[in-house]
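Sharing a chain and its predicted structure for anyone who wants a worked example. Both blocks are below, sequence first, tokens second.
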Amino acid sequence: MKFFITGGTGFVGSHVAERLAGMGHQVTILTRSVKTRHRPPGISLLEGDPTRPGAWQGSVPFHDAVVNLAGTSIFTLWTEQARKTIMESRVLSTRNLVDALSGEGGKPALLSASAVGYYGSRTDDLVLDESSPAGNEFLTRIAMEWEKEAKRAESFGVRVVLCRFGIVLGRQGGALGRMLPAFRHMLGGPLGSGRQSFSWIHEEDVLNILLFLTEHEHISGPVNVTAPNPVTNEELSRTLARILKKPILLPAVPAFVIRTVLGEFGDVLIKGQHAIPRRLLDEGYSFKFPHLREALEDLLRG
């Protein structure tokens, strides 16, 4: 199959692109500069800025599936400029991608990233699936605007899947990469109450789910891309510490300290979502890593 990927040089996108290419699929990555990028075998680089219309849009319809992963990281202090950048990097990229699908030519499936932040940050353990209502905060507004732009493609006859990602755990960075140094130096531990839910997904299941959604052409709309067994922040911390064979020596970081240092972004860490992948389970997807311990052991092996 032929895949077109935005955000293909990022943490999640690079893993997906390289694994797809390794499986024999043809992969095109949209990147702002092809001169500074290493091109793994089986991957073509196309120069273009997804937040701006350009010649790159002409190649989009000539693929079997479009995987839209573009977006600036939310892991930063949410200044007004940061909020603007976070929102526009997602909305404008998706808008231009959808515009590329509006004309003549093929109608590849659009697998467009979103996030479980759609449901809002919660301190309770209310189970959230794809039928649950949206929240009312910054991450919710991002997800809603992001999904709204993607859904425009439906009017052009494009099948749209809204992939609401949990926290992706992988070998080359992301949330796990940020946590490991502290835990290896016995400085890690729970955040806030530690009771907040952590909806996660192993990077290998991300790849497999995207392939599953591509192949199952009747699936459209929102799909939670999360493991079926969320954990609490305390369970995450203690599981990671056990695997690393490092004790947790420090008390939990109080919520007010996190909010003082990180502002509103701190709520992402001290609250969470107990999201489950109801649609994937109903459709018969079999998770390679349904439980956190096995996922972390795989990622930290070697």
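Comments welcome. The CA atoms of residues 34 and 47 lie 6 Å apart.
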